[in-house]
Amino acid sequence: MAIMNFGGVEEEVITREEFSLGKAREVLKNETIAIIGYGVQGPGQALNLKDNGFKVIVGQRPGKTYEKAVADGWVPGETLFDIDEACRRATVIAFLVSDAGQIAVWPTVKQNLTAGKALYFSHGFGITYKDRTGIVPPADVDVIMVAPKGSGTSLRRLFLQGRGVNSSFAVYQDATGRAEQRTLALGIGIGSGYLFKTDFKREVYSDLTGERGTLMGAIQGLLLAQYETLREHGHSPSEAFNETVEELTQSLMPLFAERGMDWMYANCSTTAQRGALDWMGPFHDATKPVFEKLYESVASGEEAQISIDSNSKPGYREGLNRELAALRESEMWRTGAAVRKLRPEND
Asked: For position 123, what pLDDT does the model report?
């Protein structure tokens, strides 16, 4: 492991220099990795592992997702099986079904967890909230995790560009003495940029907070609040969207992604610099209590229970589609669709 300084705090990280792809292949040379669930993380991880030379099969129930797996090149009866058969054939079971879906599929997975196998997660939810999910693995299997810090779509897209998404990793249970080596090999195999150590609880607490916070929930709330304010004061949809979303995503985010927020500030006008420095404090003070409340809800298990209850209801998918349609059909995002068509690269 390499020691790196993160803001004055030293952490151990794994890079592809310390743990090469060749070493990962050697560690897993006798393993069969079954990707269970071909929804969000499944395609990216399965295809990346296959392209990197690992033995991969997919376990998926019949339906649209099964057909997607076929379209991606997985062959029924050869590399694509029902969940029970895939779990039976595997030495590493990558349990990538949705959090709520894992509860229903768990009995099938559990009956195939014979001694020495590895149960692999990309999220700490099922294990951390085991009193709510019922996911309690047998003592004679490795229980491990690699959690990419990005969507499965990003994982695949960046892999094809020769890049990678950073991932956290954790070992919950080491039954074989090889759990960490298996974990790191899988992390390198799926195309991680670098790997940093965590545990299942910290991963799910940070992940649920991030998804509901700056990654998705908070950012939509902030964007909408600013867009509405501009519109209510007479600004056109195009102007409000460009000043709220387009400039952020197309101009400023690449700048602070590349070199940091201070560098981005230094490369903006002096008027923008002054305003940003003056107003970041009030925004911090206004939102910090919301983030504290959010974290408490995650740590108490309340957010987990809300997810389990809502995602398990009959008709959940139809209700979700209605909510997403309302978001898509809002003025702000209909304006966004029009603005995107006008980007120069779309000429």
From this structure: 93
The per-residue pLDDT of the chain, averaged, comes to: 94
- Cβ(102)–Cβ(127) below 8 Å: no
Which DSSP letter does residue 251 get? I
Is the pLDDT at 1 greater than 80, yes or no? no
237 contact partners, CB below 8 Å, separation of at least 6: 231, 331, 332, 335
Cα Rg of the chain, angstroms: 22
Catalytic residue among 123, 233, 235, 284: 123
191 & 57 share domain: yes
Contacts of 66 by beta carbon, 8 Å cutoff, 6+ apart: 38, 60, 80
- Cβ-contact 37, 101 below 8 angstroms: yes
Quote the pLDDT of residue 325: 96
Q: How many CB atoms lie within 10 A of CB 14?
A: 21
Domain span including residue 180: 2-198
Q: Residues 225, 40: contact at Cβ < 8 Å?
A: no
Beta carbons of 142 and 179 less than 8 angstroms apart: yes
Half-sphere exposure of residue 304: CA atoms within 13 angstroms, side-chain side: 24
Distance CA 16, CA 158 (A): 15
| 97-111 residue pLDDT tens | 999 899 999 999 999
- Domain identity same for 215 and 147: no
Looking at the structure, tell me whether residues 162 and 185 fall in a common domain: yes
Question: Which candidate, 39, 11, 23, places its Cα nearest to that of 182?
Answer: 23
Q: Do 165 and 192 form a contact (C-beta atoms < 8 A)? A: yes
Q: DSSP state, 11?
A: E
CB within 8 A of 25, min separation 6: which ones?
52, 53, 54, 185, 189
Active site residue 123: yes
pLDDT tens-digit readout, 188-238 = 999 998 999 999 999 999 999 999 999 999 999 999 999 999 999 999 999
